Structures are given as structure tokens and as C-alpha cells.
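If I may wish for something, please sit down with the protein I am sending here and say whether C-alpha cells and residues agree:
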Amino acid sequence: MPVRIQESADVADSARIGEGSSVWHLAQVREDAVLGENCIVGRGAYVGSGVVMGDNCKLQNYALVYEPAVLEDGVFVGPAVCFTNDHYPRSIAPDGTLKRGDDWEAVGVTCRQGSSIGARAVCVAPVTIGRWAMVAAGSVVVKDVPDFALVAGVPATRRRWVGRAGVPLEPGPDPHRWVCPQTGETYIEENETLREATT
């Protein structure tokens, strides 16, 4: 499938855009960014220099994904989400001179496979959003999110578990088992983590 880049989008020549991907109006994809196949970069979204996105990722309108973020396959980033990249942001140095790109060390947000970040959430780097985890809209994430966790609030804390389908899991036949009401898949909770049951 062909790549679709709208005329008003700003895509650097050195960016690599996978087959079937779309970059919509007024979006910006910076130098050396890598987008996998079938990705969508919504209107006004920003993809920083060297950001790496896997296949089938969606960045909704006005999402800001600053380098050195890494998004694995199937990540959803909602409208107006912001990924930060600086521990101690300043415009100027202590002597009053304007800071430059090499005056600080960028830190990134990592989103594992299938994770979803709700509208207007802020992920304060460096954090990792676990596989198939879900960040509720408007949340502020300041620490790593476990696989399959649903986190919400300021700061974000775990409220529920979710499965691959994204719906909250229901208690299973014993205290450590959870079941997806949509798919019937079973998950096992151990030491505040969740994993897929093998049997």
C-alpha cells in the first residue's frame, strides 16, 4: 500500500515512513524518525527526531511525541497527549544564555506493544508503559506502568487490570485469576503484576 502524506504536512527527507502509513494535515515528522507500516499520524501531531514507531500505531490529532520516544507495534496515542523528554527543563543556563540542544540529555517514553494513552495524558520521561496497558484520559504518568494495568489520576495509579481487548477484567474462579468478559482470555496476578495464563 502506498504512503499517504498530505501536502500541508512537514516530513523530513531523512524520516522513514512504512508502507500504508498516513501523515495528515499540519503534522510534523522530524529527521531520522522511523514509522512502521500502516501507521497514522493525525492532524497537527508531532514526531520528534529519531523517534521510532512500530507497525499499526496511531497518533491522534495534536499528540506530541518527543525524542527519544519508542513505540512498539500497535500503540495508540490519543488526542493532545504529550510525552516529555527532559528531567529539568530550562530555556536558559544559569548565566542567562540560551540553552542549546547539546546542553541537556534527552530521556524518553517507551510504549510497549498494544498500549494505549488516553486524550490529554502526560507521560513524564523516563517511563515505560507496559504491554496492553491503558492510561486514562487526563492522567499524569510519573512512574512505569505494568503490563495490562489501567492507570488513572494525577499522579496516575493502577485502578484496574485490562486485557488485550482493552476492557476491564473481571474476577476469575480463584483470587489470583482474572477473565476478559469480551474474549474469555484468562490472566494470572502475581506480586502486583499480571500475565496471560498458559492453560
Remarks:
- Residues 164-199 form one domain.
